[in-house]
Amino acid sequence: MSDTCEICSAPGGLTTHSMAPRDATVQLCDTCLAGVKGPISDAPHWQCLSGAIWSESEAVKVLAYRLLHGLKSEAWAQDILDIAYLEPDTLAWAEEDLPDENALVHRDSNGVVLSAGDSVVLIKDLPVKGAGFTAKRGTPVRNISLSPANETHIEGRVNGQQIVILTQFVKKTG
Fold first, then answer.
1. Which domains does the chain have, with CATH numbers?
2. Which of 110, 141, 159, 163 is the most exposed place for a label (fewest CB within 10 A)?
């Protein structure tokens, strides 16, 4: 067991992180653990991934690959991913928990991810074409459904009518 973070080499205050589905663990500092469990954004701290991807530990390589994948919009992270080599078995493990890049993500006007069945509220008066009414600002729309073809469209009932609503005009509630 290491007394430094296996990703960035920070000393002490470590937490053991399980690398499911395999029986492997990695010792992480609080900063690295936060990046694993939540959103990761570009910061000087993550430059440590350029070394972690070459670790002798397969679990550390997998975690570094996943973290780099979360930062791949950054040129430096994409450069590391381009030159990194993982054995086919290790690469398959690393890619197991990566989000589907082709999946649509529906977000409200504040960038909050919407899911089918969520409730939203309109943030603007919206004329409803073909229905002859205006959906007023503040109108709640419950049990929305997501358009499978367009991430900017949701559907819901307003005044008894099933309508398509642009996500930029709604805010998630509850």
1. 15-95 (no CATH), 119-173 (2.30.30.40)
2. 110
Residue 106 CB: number of other CB atoms within 10 A? 20
Q: Give the tens place of pLDDT for each residue, 21-54.
A: 888 999 999 999 988 888 787 789 999 999 999 9
Determine the length of the chain.
174
Rounded CA-CA distance 30/36 in Å is: 10
Q: By 3-state DSSP, what share of the chain in percent is helix, strand and coil, each rounded to 5?
A: 30, 25, 45
Collapsed DSSP state (helix, strand, coil) of residue 120: strand
Residues with Cβ within 8 Å of residue 94, at least 6 apart in sequence: 61, 62, 65, 66, 86
Six token digits for residue 42: 């570009």
The number of angstroms, rounded, from the C-alpha of 29 to the middle of its chain's C-alpha atoms is 21
